[in-house]
Write a structure and sequence with these properties.
Number of helices: 6
Helix content: over 70%
Distance between the termini: 16 Å
Low-confidence stretches: 134-150
Radius of gyration: 18 Å
Number of domains: 1
Strand content: under 5%
Shape: globular
């Protein structure tokens, strides 16, 4: 059933994530976080988020190599190990923090999420161009999406 409706599910999935990101950014604008945060604080938070993402990506890569998992599992480990998104973070923040502070509280996650999307897109593109780059044979199992056959 999922395979039959894959196109619709893809649109709904991406639409939901877009709405969550839009909601978080809108809350930030309404609460005035872009005005209340100094440019240098914004730059420093961006640098910390970038370093954190780099550390997590490096750690998951090393763990995959040390565990000697196949190429497909190593790719999954790298991508899933770094995923912290607004789709899960915003609802939790709304429960944990007072509404007046959620916009400012979510600022680091908003920045991390955007950096993560760009960096992971570059990594995915590179992996797609060089199927045997990870030192594995090119015949290693390919990563399949939900609903794809064997």
């Amino acid at each position: 059933m999922i395979a039959r409706h894959a196109a619709v599910l893809k649109v709904v999935d991406r639409g939901c994530i877009l709405l969550v990101v839009y909601t978080a950014l809108s809350m930030g604008v309404v609460k005035g976080i872009w005005v209340s945060v100094d440019v240098w604080h914004l730059v420093s938070v961006t640098i910390v988020a970038t370093v954190l993402l780099a550390v997590v990506l490096a750690a998951t890569t090393v763990v995959g190599r040390l565990a000697r998992v196949d190429r497909g599992d190593a790719i999954v480990l790298v991508f899933c190990g770094s995923k912290k998104s607004l789709a899960s973070g915003l609802p939790m923040a709304l429960v944990l923090f007072p509404a007046a502070t959620v916009g400012l509280t979510m600022l680091p996650l908003m920045l991390f999420h955007q950096i993560q999307l760009v960096v992971c897109a570059v990594i995915a593109s590179r992996l797609a161009r060089h199927p045997d780059e990870a030192g594995q044979p090119a015949s290693a199992p390919a990563v399949r999406t939900v609903g794809e056959g064997p």
